[in-house]
């Protein structure tokens, strides 16, 4: 048993609002509300690249709504705060200005390429997608053959592209905080998932979590 998840048998003793499936629903509502505010910011933005923000974040909202419920969900407050912080980073971005227009093609390439990677990962996950650390089923195919968290790798490329296309100091701070939480979130997820023998074997087979050669 790890420190990242309460034993399943204690779930019935938790307050109603703190049970995994209830927390799942609270999380879904929060993501959708933040997504609506992001859409509003994109609509009033004068940056022509602003709609690129909606590609990955709309996918987050959709997959959050259709995912499979689970009781194998971390109920640690720290894990939830990390997950929400990492997810909210992309939803809180403000469309800024293209600071270096010559780099715009690179920004578009990173944003679109990153969206394709994270979309591929989401299609493999399907209803197993989630925000808080949880075991909704182990996926070992598609981009998961190369890194253990390809969806987050896609987000990384998207966020780099967004900073090139829509730079602002606020966005730098938001992403810095978001990725600090994202790294800790990855470690929390793996503490939970490594309790599954199949995932433990997968970790031994696929060495890198996010970026081959780095992490």
TrEMBL record:
Protein keywords: Membrane, Methyltransferase, Transferase, Transmembrane, Transmembrane helix
Compartment(s) of residence: Membrane
Annotated EC: 2.1.1.100, 2.1.1.334
Keyword presence, Oxidoreductase: no
Record flagged with keyword Transmembrane: yes
InterPro entries: ICMT_MeTrfase, Metal_cation-efflux_comp
UniProt GO molecular function: protein C-terminal S-isoprenylcysteine carboxyl O-methyltransferase activity
Annotated transmembrane regions: 78-97, 103-125, 146-166
Enzyme class: transferase
Membrane topology: Multi-pass membrane protein
Entry's Gene Ontology BP terms: methylation
Protein name in UniProt: Methyltransferase family protein
Lineage: Bacteria, Pseudomonadati, Pseudomonadota, Alphaproteobacteria, Sphingomonadales
């Amino acid at each position: 048993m790890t420190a990242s998840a309460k034993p399943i048998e204690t779930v019935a003793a938790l307050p109603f609002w703190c049970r995994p499936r209830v927390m799942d629903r609270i999380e879904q509502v929060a993501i959708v509300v933040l997504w609506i505010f992001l859409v509003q910011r994109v609509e009033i933005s004068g940056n022509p690249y602003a709609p690129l923000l909606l590609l990955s974040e709309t996918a987050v909202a959709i997959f959050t709504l259709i995912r499979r419920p689970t009781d194998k969900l971390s109920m640690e407050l720290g894990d939830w705060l990390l997950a929400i912080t990492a997810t909210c980073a992309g939803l809180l971005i403000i469309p800024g200005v293209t600071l270096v227009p010559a780099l715009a093609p690179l920004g578009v390439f990173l944003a679109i390429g990153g969206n394709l990677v994270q979309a591929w990962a989401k299609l493999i996950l399907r209803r197993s997608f989630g925000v808080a650390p949880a075991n909704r089923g182990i996926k070992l195919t598609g981009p998961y053959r190369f890194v253990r968290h390809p969806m987050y790798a896609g987000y990384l490329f998207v966020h780099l592209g967004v900073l090139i296309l829509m730079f602002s100091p606020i966005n730098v701070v938001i992403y810095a905080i978001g990725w600090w939480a994202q790294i800790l979130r990855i470690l929390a997820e793996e503490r939970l998932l490594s309790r599954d023998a199949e995932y433990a074997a997968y970790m031994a087979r696929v060495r890198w979590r996010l970026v081959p050669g780095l992490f």
